[in-house]
Amino acid sequence: MSVLSTKVEIEHDFAKLGHNNSTSFFITYETSLDKKESKYCKNVSLFLPLDGQYETKISFEISSKLLNDPGTMPNFNSSRVILSDLSVLTRRDSVWAAECNGNETCVPNLTFTSYISFDHNKDPYIIGSSETETINMTVQNIGEMAYDPCVRVHIIGVNVFMIPTDCQYEGSSDEIRLLCEPSRPIRTNNTWITGQIELEMKHLTNLDRNVTINMHLFDHCDDVATLNITKTIFVKAESGGIIAKGETDIGSIVNMTKEDIEENGKKIQHIYTINNNGRFNWKNLEVRVNLQKKPYIKYGSTPIIVIVYSPLKNSYPSCQVVSQNKTSMFYVCLIESLMKTVEIAKILIPMYIVPGVLDGILDKDKNVTTMSSVDLKLIGNDSKHESIITTITFQEASPVSIETLIIAIIVGICIFVIIIVILYRFGFLRRKKRDELNKLKRELKRQTIIRRSTMPSQALQAPDRSQLLESIEEANDNTQDLKQDKPAKQDPSLKK
After folding, report:
1. Burial class (CB in 10 A: 0-12, 13-18, 19+), 181
2. Could you say which of 10, 164, 178, 185 would form a disulfide bridge with 153 (CB–CB 3.0 to 4.6 Å)?
3. Which residue range or ranges hold the Integrin alpha second immunoglobulin-like domain (predicted)?
4. How far is the C-alpha of 208 from the C-alpha of 470, rounded, in Å?
């Protein structure tokens, strides 16, 4: 008996072969050649899922081989089937299974619409007005089946916060490029919604002027774009959130005594505090500082010190002198970053009032001043101005009056007495066991008096009687003292 073994194998991402209630990419079956027919046929099922991509052809290969070949057997039997040199045992081909009318090509007709949430036509987007914005795209097919359409999106000027499942990043990390493809073909009169692309708007700064979104629609993703759309949304930053405040470290009025004017001098400092209370982070804030030239004011080797306090790391921008004349010096300080609410910039201007210069100029009827100012260059022609004026006055050294001295002495004595009373009430300044010692002395005197009172009266002489009476009076006094400490019973012998 001769048997022919046949293997059918296909190559495709979606199509499969069906055999014995199962599917796979290949099947094998055997055919008996005993009937010696000129042709043997067998139908093989091909399973095509509805959502599969079939614009690419399905490749297949059919191969056969003869089992129990008579040429390989020891005993030849002429009734068995043999293979000739003209036998073709393998065939390779492909088949196109797309649901289209054309030959090997589908012709979809796609229309594209997009919605950008912060595109307000001619009105610019105000930076900081929202944390995130969105892009939504819709593709509709009114032509043949669209097996491999896609939309490519190129976003410039803003970061992407979240992308839908139908989109993925492509290209280098320096640019934001998205490739969006449907998970299934777009059938005729069907619509594909790409999903929502979420943009992160909080990183826009005062330096940003616009956001550009390029969208390209492809009927076939590996072909040229059939539609190109560019949206440019202008953005605008408002400068109201930058606040500057100036003050002198020891007050706007500085008093100078004669000793300060002639010998000591005095140190003061102008302090400007710049806060960003706006809705976005500020970049490259330019601050122009104006310092007055006065003969009695001396600036340090670094006239201006800038500190930006940050939760991560403080920075120290430098200032450059740009011009000066006989009365003023002008500096420019560049603050590279001032994040909203979390960073604070301080501009410090240390000054020293030189001794000996104001002698003869400053008196009780005449004051002098020193001034500094800052100008913050904001957006366009917007700017903010802040200045500090410090008035230097003469203060006479007044002696202490007698009345003040007397009051001070009385108050000091009262405080001292109060302290002593408090210490005494809490047991300080007392001898330990003093009460017990006094009580013991009184008890000894009482016992002595009792013993004397029990002696025979005839033995007592006149001087001794008077002494005894004095002792009894003293004992009575001591008894009264003992009653205050602790009541005691009177000895019966004392009554006799």
Report:
1. middle
2. 178
3. 100-217
4. 113
- Residue range 24-61, pLDDT digits in tens: 888 888 888 777 777 888 888 888 888 888 888 889 99
Q: Are residues 233 and 253 in the same domain?
A: no
Q: How far is it, in rounded angstroms, from Cα 243 to Cα 273?
A: 8
Q: Same domain, yes or no, for 180 and 311?
A: no
Q: Which residues pair with 9 in a beta bridge?
A: 26, 61
Tens of pLDDT, residue by residue over 414-460, are 998 998 888 877 766 565 566 676 777 778 877 777 777 766 544 44
Centroid of chain to Cα 249: 32
- Considering the domain architecture, whether residues 252 and 390 belong to the same structural domain is answered as yes
Query: Model pTM?
Result: 0.66
Tell me, yes or no, whether 296 lies in a domain: yes
Domain extent at residue 357: 241-394
Asked if residue 430 is part of any domain, the answer here is: no
Provide, rounded to the nearest whole percent, the portion of the chain with pLDDT above 90: 55
CATH number, domain of 214, equals 2.60.40.1510
Closest CA to 285 of 212, 344, 353, 372: 344
Strand partners, 209: none
Same domain, 58 and 25: yes
The answer for 121, left when phi > 0, alpha when psi is -120 to 50, beta otherwise, is left
Give me the mean pLDDT over the 178-186 stretch. 94
Q: Quote the CA–CA distance of 151 and 217 in Å, as a whole number.
A: 5
Q: Which value, to the nearest 10 degrees, does the dihedral of the CA atoms of residues 30, 34, 36, 40 take?
A: -20
326 vs 309: CA distance, rounded Å = 34
